[in-house]
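Interim report, section 4.2 (structural modelling).
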Amino acid sequence: MTALIIGSMLGSSVVLSPGLNAGSASWLTVITGLAMASPMVWIVIKLTGDYPGKTLVEINDVILGPLCGKIFSFMYLWYFFHLGAIVLRDFGDFMSTIMRVTPPSVFLLITTALVAYLVRNGIEVMARCSLIIVIFSFLLLPLVFILVSNNIDLANLLPINSIGAGEFLKANYEVTIFPFGEIIVFTMIIKSANDYSKIKRSIITALALTCMFGTIFNVYVISGLGNNLATATYPGYEVIRRVDIFGIITRIDVVGATADLALGVLKASVILYAVALGIAQIFKLRSYTSIVLPLGTLMFLLSLIQFNSSIENFIFHERTYLYYAVLFQAFLPALTLTIDRIKKALAGRTARASA
Amino acid sequence: MFGFFKKKARAMQLHNLNAKEQNRQNAPQKPAGPALSANLEENLKIIRNTLGQSPDIIIRKFNFGPQYSYNAALVFVDGMVDKTIINENIIKPLMYDMHIVTGEHKFSLDNLGDLRNILLSVSDVRNITLFDEVFKRSLYGNTILLLDGFAAALDIDTKGWQARSVQEPSVEKVVRGPREGFTENMRFNTALLRRKILNPNMTIEQMVIGEQTRTNVAVAYLKGVTSPELVEEVKARLSRIKTDAILESGYIEQFIEDAPFSIFSTVGNTEKPDIAAARILEGRAAILVDGTPFVLTVPMLFIEGFQAAEDYYSRAYYASFVRLIRFMAFFLSILAPAVYVSLLTYHQEFIPTPLLITMALSVQGTPFPALVEALLMGVMFEILREGGLRLPQQVGQAVSIVGALVIGQAAVQAGLVDQTMIIVIAVTAVSSFLVVTHTDAATLLRFLLVLLAGALGAFGIVIGLLAVLVHLASLRSFGFPYLAPVAPLIIGDLKDSFIRAPLWTMIKRPQLIGNRNPTRQGEHLKPAPPEKN
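Predicted structure of the assembly:
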């Protein structure tokens, strides 16, 4: 479970390296971003902890009633679905910067097929795969460090206050929304955990490890790239690309890309699983497996048609997504939790009154 | 109150149903076929009609007893029996020693038991009454003694056919460790297993599978260590098999495996008693099949392919090193050609410049793209391997020499393939033999990945590997996750995975399989010099 969360958190964040807009202070943003995201995490833990064994869709039904709950659930599912398409697209774009001639749709299609295959195998298989993939990516971290150590200049980490507080907060906010806010997807999955009592611990461990990984990685990137940071499209990729050890080990970007790809598949599969399970529960299907392929196809098509180019993707991410996602990541869950608490308080009062 | 009685009544109903069900299941196992009659001639006629006029079926009629008044006949299959037993321990006592016995006692042939108890000096003799048993036992190397006037016969154990003796197995060779291997004779095999585990809990249960071949199949396990559910599951899967022939344990394997469409095997096999015993001691069950030296062990985990018996016989450091080498070789054998193809086709920048120049020179003269070369050489190698395996040894050598020359020299000189490709294929070939268990799967994967690499470069390879990972993670062998102890992660069991920790640290059995009796040995077994005062 821990690994599953780490995997999907790291997934696209390694490729897109969030929070790097903060210039030389960027390595701080992951930590502070997590701090900003902690209320969202708290909401997720509370919601799922109060209704053990239930997914977000079922919780919505209980708290908001069947009709209103369904409307909320649909909104969430739309967001998850869109998120999945964005994740797929990110990876399609990323791959096509490496393989320039092949059209991105090829990568998208094959990745989607793999994701659908993984989801059809069920949550248990997803967890096992994520474990292996996450262990390998964590092993890769020291390896990358050894390789990039040649290019690292720790002076690049200073000065911390190169940008104003406003900009720093904005960069923080980015990290909060992406990737940490996406923890909301796990409200669909937490109920499958073996040991419910350990959920809180594993979420916190996962987030802490993700934060550690992200910070270390950002330190590599900033100290490795220095002033070139602003010009790189995929900074994490760029820093690995610049590795050059005596002209023998050069341009090992492919290795880094493969690790990213594995994490991305993991993240997309978690999201697709959440959507498929949610729809199956809303329409009371016996099993979610039958709708995985159709949903996967739709996700593939959406990811293909939503942007004309990767630049458009970036602009959408910066200008729209950050404010669009917060609705689903923070406002709706907070609203649900508040209604739940008010209802419980009222129920408690009436119970006391009648007694 | 009433609820309680209702429940009771329901339970009793269920109980009766169960009993009926059991009766129904037991019934066909005891076919009440035609019984022997008291008339010898009639019995012999039926036997002749059923077994036919085959020259190897021998019916020996003779008379014995006072005034040679008893008519008797022996039925056996020539070649399956040990004739000295028949001559010395059956015919001789009946014909000659009978006089001694009748002289001392008042001997009367009231029942066959007297014959068995006093005269026949053979270890295993049983009374039988059915024709079915006559056929079954005589065809399995026993001798049937029929006596005129009795509606029963004696089934005398005279098995003694020619069998290969216990030899060193050809597949799993060892430098250090026992050299004996299983043989085609199941009795030898069970004895070899028993000699490894001299424990009364070592249990062997036998059944017959195959409508036509009636092959003996045995399930061996250690009571108290193997989980009873596993044993039940194995027996249930075995008893489900309704086929006409079991000629090798591979038949059984394909009927009981969990993932029949997977390219990975989920049933282990071994030719060595020490390996089978070690697996049984970890909580697995072994399936022995008459007529083959390959013993199946279930459940099988992916990691088993990388474990060899010698890892445990030699010291931990080198054993761990060899383990790691095996893992490396496995990945090399599935990845090397694919990576080479993708490097040459898509990611030239990855190659160090001096090497790139050399490679470019060697590729320059060759007409085909790297993908075609890799496929060509890969197929060529598989052909040579298959040829070398199946042909008689002398011809096989010739084939390999020709193959090596053709592939190694001529193909390069003729400008068909570049030299680096030859090296890559050679490395692949050698490393594919390190992990014998997964060689089949590795070969298929290699071709698949080469195709993916040719089409999509590194992306294709990663997608292929991820798909394999997902598939492996979804596999189960008799309910146990195939990728354990890595996924699901079992920290304690990692001592015997990528490395092999010292034996005294392996206190527990593998957690999932050996759950029934988790502790293997005492704690404080770390050897140390005697304390000095």
